[in-house]
Design goal:
Helix content is 25%, strand content 25%. With 314 residues, it is an alpha/beta fold. The radius of gyration is 21 Å and the shape is elongated.
Length: 314
């Protein structure tokens, strides 16, 4: 691919990147997608997905991604399982570097997503999608009438805990400190909810269970005392890290490290567009990421049209 100037390069292969690729093929932009060596985003660690339109029965997260991938390939997208290691958006055409070489592009869509922070426990990853989750909106329904725990003390944790009370019989919030970091309104809502209780000054040291979560081990950070909580689910809500390190210094990032939007889906660099969780720290849903991918592509199509000064079929 080195030496050819692409009309469109898409970086990322979750719902945002693959939707952009599908639309990009229909817009005759011949998209080149750098998927990354670990492709598919967070859906690859998700078990059953019940809230993605078009699937009357639950679909496994990896299966949903593979269906999107197959659709993009059928339409003509070129999917390359390479990591982007560097970009140069100060040149035009833009330059995108992978271990295979450099690709020049008239437009780029950044769709690299965000990664949930982990507890870094082997049992956490072993039971991911089997009772361990990073998304109450996605998975809360599966815990109707069950006991769950939430790790964290910030706004996200309180939002998750409060949401889970719609389904769970009880929610225990495990926090490393003796005071919440959440905003006053979210703190008040959570502390006044009769279904929510708090385990202060504590950290999860292990997730118990084989095929599913059956409990968590907790250690008090002040006394060292250990205890076991009998829960059916564990929601880790200690924040997200946007996958933007490779773009630092190339596009404007906000205070949290997410790509800042300037005009619709456009970044601070004209011709570089953004889709999905790499900018969206509020919704973080597969369907909103897919919608972002569509919008970013439509904006990129207009940009490329102007650059080529030809009419691209819609």
């Amino acid at each position: 691919m080195e030496g050819k100037t692409e009309k469109l390069v898409i970086i990322g292969s979750g719902p945002a990147g693959l939707t952009a690729a599908i639309y990009g093929c229909r817009a005759d932009l011949e998209p080149l997608v750098y998927m990354g060596t670990k492709y598919g985003g967070q859906l690859m660690l998700t078990s059953e997905v019940e809230n993605f339109p078009g699937f009357p029965d639950p679909v496994l997260g990896p299966d949903l991604i593979n269906k999107m991938k197959s659709q993009a390939e059928r339409l003509g997208a070129r999917l390359v399982q390479d990591d982007v290691v560097r970009v140069d958006f100060k040149k035009y055409p833009f330059e995108v570097y992978t271990p295979s070489g450099v690709t020049k592009a008239l437009s780029v869509i950044i769709a690299t997503g965000a990664n949930p922070r982990r507890l870094n426990l082997p049992s956490e990853m072993r039971l991911m999608g089997k009772g361990v989750s990073n998304c109450a909106v996605c998975d809360g329904f599966f815990f109707r009438g069950k006991k769950v725990a939430v790790v964290g003390g910030g706004d996200t944790a309180m939002e998750e805990a409060t949401f889970l009370t719609k389904f769970a019989s009880s929610v225990q919030v495990i926090h490393r400190r003796d005071e919440l970091r959440a905003s006053a309104a979210l703190k008040k809502e959570a502390t006044e909810n009769p279904k929510i209780s708090f385990v202060w000054d504590s950290a999860v040291t292990d997730v118990l269970g084989e095929g599913k979560v059956q409990g968590v081990k907790v250690r008090n950070l002040k006394t060292g005392a250990e205890s076991t909580l009998q829960v059916d689910g564990l929601f880790v809500a200690i924040g997200y890290d946007p996958a933007t390190e490779v773009f630092r210094g190339q596009v404007e990032l906000d205070q949290k490290g997410y790509v800042a939007l300037k005009n619709g889906t456009e970044s601070s660099v004209p011709g570089v567009f953004v889709a999905g969780d790499v900018h969206d720290f509020r919704y973080r849903q597969a369907i909103t990421a897919a919608a972002d991918g569509c919008k970013a592509l439509l904006d990129a199509e207009k940009f490329v049209k102007q650059k080529l000064e030809v009419t691209v079929p819609s």
